[in-house]
C-alpha cells in the first residue's frame, strides 16, 4: 500500500520505517526541513536503538522517502497516519490539538481520491469525531474516512514495539476502514498479534486509560516507598512480593524517582482535563494525586541528598548520573533527573551531570547546569553522587575505582538498580529510595 506518515518525531519516524519494513511504500512528512534532511540520509534525529539501521535499509530498498509537503502526501497516499505531538496546552493541563488540526487543514483540501486518515497521536476522546466533521467540510472528494489507531510504544524499544506489538487497537466507522487497516498490518497479524477493532471513541480511550493505569501503578509503589522510608522497611522485597500476585504483576512496580517524558505526565493531566470538560471530572480526581505523588518523589530525592550532606546543599559538589527521563533514550522532556539536578543547584550546590546520550538535549533544556560525557569526570571531586537514570552502564561502574576520584564516597540510588552491597563493600555510604539506610 501507499502510506504517508505525517509527523516524524519519536512516534512518526519509527512508524514510517516500520511500515516500510512491512513492505509498504511510505512517505514521511514533517514541517522541519532539517529533520527531513537527516531522515532522508538515513540518520535518526534522536536516539532510538535500531532505528538508523531500519531507516537505511528501507531507504536503500526504495520503500521509504521523506518530504516537507502535505501536498505531496495528499498525492502519494491511500492511508495517511497522523503522528504529530499533542503537548500540554500553555496555561492549561489540556492537550494542545493545534498540530493535529493543522495536519487535517493542510492535507485534506489537497486530496484527489478516496483515502483513510488514521490518527496515532494521543488525543482527548471525541477528537476523531471532531476531525471527521472537519474533513467533511474541507474535502473536495467523498469517501475520506477518519479512524484511530493508538500507539503503545516505549522509547528505547520503539522499533520492536512497532514490528512486534503486544496488541493492535483500531477505531473505525465502517467495515471498509477495518479491512484497510487489516491490510496495512497484515504482516503483523499473520504473526498472531491480537487485533481489537472497535469504535473510534473507545480506541481513543484505550490509550489514555493505559497511560493512566501505568502512572497509577508507578505512583502507588512510590507512595508505599515513602512509607518504607518512614518506618525502615524495604521496598524491593515488598514490590517483589506484590508482583508475584497474578492479579497485580511485577511490571511497572519498580520503586524509585518516578516517571517523566513526553507522554505519561501530560497525558494523565489531559485525561483529567477532558473528563472535567465532559462534567465527570470527579471520577478521575485520583489522577491529580497520582501526578502529585510523582512530582513529590523528586523533592524526596532532594531532601535525602540534603540529609546525606549534613543538612545543607550550599557550595557542595554533587555528581548526577543521568539526564534522560529513562534509559535507552536521549529524551529529556519532563526528566525527573534534570528536575532534581536543577533543584539541587537552586539550593546552592555545584552540580555536574553525565548521560550516555542526552547531554546535548539536556544542555538545551537546562543550560545553567554543568555537563560531561566522560563518566570519570562527573565523579571528580564530588561529595555526593546521585543515580537518577537507570542506564545499564551505571550498573557496571567500578565503585572501588570511583572512590579514588571523589571527595566523599557517598551515593544515593534513586532508581534502585545498583548493587548497593557491592558499593558498600568498596567503602561507599549508600542510600536507596525506599530502603533502610546504614
Outline the structure in words.
The chain is of the alpha/beta class. It folds into two domains: 2-197, NAD(P)-binding Rossmann-like Domain (Rossmann fold); 199-438, Rossmann fold, CATH 3.40.50.720. It has 19 helices and 14 strands. The protein has helices at 10-21, 33-40, 51-60, 70-76, 98-107, 127-138, 158-163, 175-184, 186-189, 200-231, 235-243, 264-277, 286-308, 336-346, 359-365, 375-379, 392-395, 399-402, 420-425, and strands at 2-6, 25-29, 64-67, 79-82, 115-119, 144-148, 168-171, 195-198, 317-321, 350-354, 370-372, 384-387, 410-413, 429-432. The strands form three sheets. The protein has a six-stranded parallel sheet with strand order 3-2-1-4-5-6, sandwiched between helices. A six-stranded parallel sheet has the order 11-10-9-12-13-14. Strands 7-8 form a two-stranded parallel ribbon. The longest helix is centred in the middle third of the chain and has 32 residues, at 200-231. It starts with a strand and ends in a 6-residue tail after the last strand. The relative contact order is 0.09. The model has no long low-confidence stretch (mean pLDDT 97).
Q: How far apart, in Å, are the first and last alpha carbons?
A: 62 Å
Radius of gyration: 23 Å
How would you sum up the global shape? globular
Major beta sheet, strand line-up: 3-2-1-4-5-6
Question: What percentage of amino acids are in beta strands?
Answer: 5-15%
Amino acid at each position: 500500500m501507499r502510506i504517508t506518515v505525517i509527523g516524524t518525531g519519536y512516534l512518526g519516524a519509527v512508524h514510517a520505517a516500520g511500515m516500510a519494513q512491512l513492505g509498504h511504500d511510505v512517505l514521511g512528512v514533517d514541517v522541519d526541513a532539517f529533520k527531513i534532511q537527516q531522515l532522508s540520509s538515513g540518520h535518526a534525529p534522536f536516539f532510538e536503538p535500531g532505528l538508523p539501521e531500519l531507516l537505511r535499509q528501507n531507504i536503500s530498498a526504495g520503500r521509504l522517502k521523506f518530504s516537507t509537503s502535505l501536498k505531496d502526501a495528499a498525492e502519494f497516499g491511500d492511508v495517511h497516519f497522523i503522528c504529530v505531538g499533542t503537548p500540554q496546552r500553555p496555561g492549561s493541563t489540556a492537550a494542545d490539538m493545534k498540530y493535529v488540526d493543522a495536519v487535517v487543514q493542510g492535507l485534506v483540501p489537497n486530496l484527489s481520491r478516496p483515502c483513510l486518515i488514521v490518527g496515532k497521536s494521543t488525543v482527548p476522546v471525541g477528537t476523531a469525531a471532531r476531525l471527521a466533521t472537519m474533513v467533511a467540510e474541507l474535502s473536495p472528494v467523498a469517501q475520506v474516512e477518519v479512524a484511530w489507531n493508538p500507539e503503545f510504544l516505549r522509547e528505547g524499544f520503539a522499533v520492536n514495539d512497532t514490528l512486534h506489538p503486544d496488541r493492535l487497537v483500531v477505531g473505525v466507522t465502517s467495515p471498509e476502514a477495518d479491512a484497510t487497516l487489516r491490510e496495512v498490518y497484515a504482516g503483523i497479524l499473520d504473526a498472531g498479534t491480537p487485533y481489537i477493532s472497535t469504535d473510534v471513541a473507545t480506541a481513543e480511550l484505550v490509550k489514555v486509560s493505559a497511560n493512566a493505569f501505568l502512572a497509577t501503578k508507578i505512583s502507588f509503589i512510590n507512595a508505599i516507598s515513602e512509607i518504607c522510608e518512614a518506618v525502615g522497611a524495604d521496598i524491593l522485597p515488598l514490590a517483589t512480593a506484590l508482583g508475584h500476585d497474578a492479579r497485580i504483576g511485577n511490571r511497572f512496580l519498580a520503586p524509585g524517582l518516578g516517571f517523566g517524558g513526553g507522554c505519561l505526565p501530560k497525558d494523565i493531566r489531559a485525561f483529567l482535563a477532558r473528563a472535567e470538560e465532559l462534567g465527570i471530572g470527579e471520577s478521575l480526581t485520583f489522577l491529580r494525586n497520582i501526578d502529585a505523588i510523582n512530582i513529590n518523589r523528586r523533592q524526596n530525592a532532594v531532601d535525602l541528598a540534603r540529609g546525606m550532606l549534613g543538612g545543607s546543599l550550599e557550595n557542595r559538589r554533587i555528581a548526577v548520573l543521568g539526564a534522560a527521563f529513562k534509559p535507552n533514550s536521549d529524551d529529556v522532556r519532563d526528566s525527573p533527573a534534570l528536575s532534581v539536578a536543577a533543584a539541587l543547584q537552586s539550593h546552592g550546590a555545584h552540580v555536574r551531570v553525565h548521560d550516555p546520550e542526552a547531554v546535548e538535549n539536556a544542555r538545551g533544556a537546562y543550560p545553567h547546569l554543568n555537563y560531561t560525557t566522560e563518566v570519570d569526570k562527573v565523579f571528580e571531586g564530588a561529595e555526593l553522587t546521585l543515580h537518577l537514570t537507570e542506564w545499564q552502564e551505571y550498573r557496571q561502574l567500578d565503585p572501588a575505582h570511583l572512590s579514588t576520584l571523589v571527595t566523599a564516597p557517598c551515593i544515593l540510588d534513586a532508581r534502585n538498580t545498583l548493587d548497593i552491597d557491592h558499593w558498600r563493600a568498596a567503602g561507599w555510604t549508600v542510600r536507596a529510595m525506599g530502603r533502610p539506610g546504614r
